[in-house]
Amino acid sequence: MFATDPMLQHETRRGPPQAREATAPDRPAGERKGRFEQVVLPHLDAAYNLARWLTRNDHDAQDIVQDAMLRAFRFFEGLRGEPKPWLLAIVRNCCFTWLHANRPADTVAFNEGLAELLPSEDEGPEALAVRNSDRKMLNAAIATLAVPFREVLILRELEDLSYKDIARIAEVPIGTVMSRLARARRMLADSLRAIHNFSRTQVHK
Amino acid sequence: MTLEEAGRLLHAHIDGELDVAKTLELEAHLARNPSLRAAGERLREMSVAIRDKADYHAAPAWLEARVRAAIAAEPGGATTRPSWPAWLNPASFAVANWLRPAASFAAVALFTWVVALGYMRPAEDDHIAHEVLASHVRSMLANRSFDVASSDQHTVKPWLSARLAFSPPVTDLSASGFELVGGRLDYVGDQPVAVLVYKRRQHVIDVFVWPVAAPKLDQTLTRDGFNIEHFAKNGMDYWLVSDLARNELNDLAQLVAEYSAGP
């Protein structure tokens, strides 16, 4: 694993210090609440999007997000750096607690292999498969990815977060983020291509 | 950089994660190697397609109201009441940020109206009347009247009690022509409140309930075509809001006052 890969710029960059100002240790309670609403609440959609993709249903995502927001408020003093990855790390923890209790099969250990990292010569129509798939198909394919791959893909493509932020949220080294993302894209392309080929053969029968 | 390393860094490249030096090295490889270039293009197209087509699940509007209510109920949350009327408090201006576009138009109109009104008569009850009316209009605009949909008082009451620091009296009044259809949470007068939702013909009636220390004057108001009834009973403050005719809304107020008087 290339957890300390010096080729990635974020490895050498430290968190921005100015965001420390976001903490409010001894301010009056009302001001703390107002500040939370200004700083953290705007990321409620991102929190819900992550929880919804991890739990794959609305009802549980709603309960988890409410619980996570409350936790975030209680630990507001612990906010360092950007609020969005900080909040998403809390949401992700709540999701994993829920998954362990309710969907234990989703969280079993898996082989983190590197084989899929390298682009091969014969992976031809994978992008075509993604381009030609409709929304429903694509969403279903993402939903069937294993949780560790699904979460990095959602955080990268839908939340547009950097590897550094994703590493912080998923509690893995940056190199792992990169390899999981590569595998997630590969698996997604494979399953879409399979669906695509299947539906094509069905049509030609 | 070997070709193998270049292949490995393609993902980081399309994700904008490489520093300038590595980007230049990788681009040199891409220029020399058409199959690497094609692989990079495919990855980029795929990323665009996912961003374009995958569902983004935004939080439902009511979830934000519920989160705000839960935070307000936290110790150290809303314990310090502002000395200004709440509608002058900067924190309440933040409300405009989270309203969904359709609702925000109504909210802005109401806000303008309440500010103008506030200058004339800055009474607390006016402010409450504004808030309950705004909540009612917002829920109608968002087409989301309740968090728990049930005509069964034994479902609605525990649902509300579990989420609030008090237990509001709940009764189905179908027999009297007011059907209980559900309940929701909202945030009024700096506190989380229960809202019971009744229906009569096509009219939706919101009954806001929260505990009150001192009994207040009953009143009947008409605002922007909506009727508002206010009374306090058994330690609870009740605000009824609807576009229902005034005499019918008053009937419901009587019924609610009767059942909330308790056995």
Uncertain residue ranges of chain B? 77-99, 117-122
Greatest contact pair?
A-B, 58 and 54 residues
Kindly state the percentage of residues in helix of chain A: 55-70%
What's the overall geometry of chain B?
elongated
How would you sum up the major sheet of chain B?
7 strands, antiparallel
Q: What is the level-2 CATH architecture name of the largest domain in chain B?
A: 2-Layer Sandwich
Description:
The complex is a heterodimer of chains A (205) and B (263). With 205 residues, chain A is an all-alpha fold. Chain A has nine helices and no strands. Chain A has one domain (9-204). Chain A is 62% helix and 0% strand. In chain A, α2 crosses α3. The longest helix of chain A has 31 residues, at 174-204. Chain A is elongated and about 65 Å long. Chain B has eleven helices and seven strands. Chain B is of the alpha+beta class and 263 residues long. The longest helix of chain B has 20 residues, at 34-53. Chain B has helices spanning 3-8, 10-14, 20-32, 34-53, 61-72, 90-93, 95-98, 101-120, 124-141, 153-163, 246-260; strands at 148-149, 179-188, 191-200, 203-211, 219-223, 226-233, 236-242. Chain B folds into two domains: 3-53, Arc Repressor Mutant, subunit A, CATH 1.10.10; 61-260, MucB/RseB, C-terminal domain (Phosphorylase Kinase, domain 1, 2-Layer Sandwich). Helices cover 49% and strands 19% of the residues of chain B. Chain B has a seven-stranded antiparallel beta sheet, with helices on both faces. The chains are: A mainly alpha (205), B alpha+beta (263). At the A-B interface, α1, α2, α3, α5 and α6 of A face α1, α2, α4 and α5 of B.
Short summary of the structure?
The complex is a heterodimer of chains A (205) and B (263). Chain A is mostly helical and 205 residues long.
Write the layout of secondary structure elements.
The complex is a heterodimer of chains A (205) and B (263).
Chain A: H1 29-39, H2 44-55, H3 58-74, H4 83-102, H5 126-132, H6 135-143, H7 147-158, H8 163-170, H9 174-204
Chain B: H1 3-8, H2 10-14, H3 20-32, H4 34-53, H5 61-72, H6 90-93, H7 95-98, H8 101-120, H9 124-141, E1 148-149, H10 153-163, E2 179-188, E3 191-200, E4 203-211, E5 219-223, E6 226-233, E7 236-242, H11 246-260
Antiparallel strand pairs in B: 1-2, 2-3, 3-4, 4-7, 5-6, 6-7
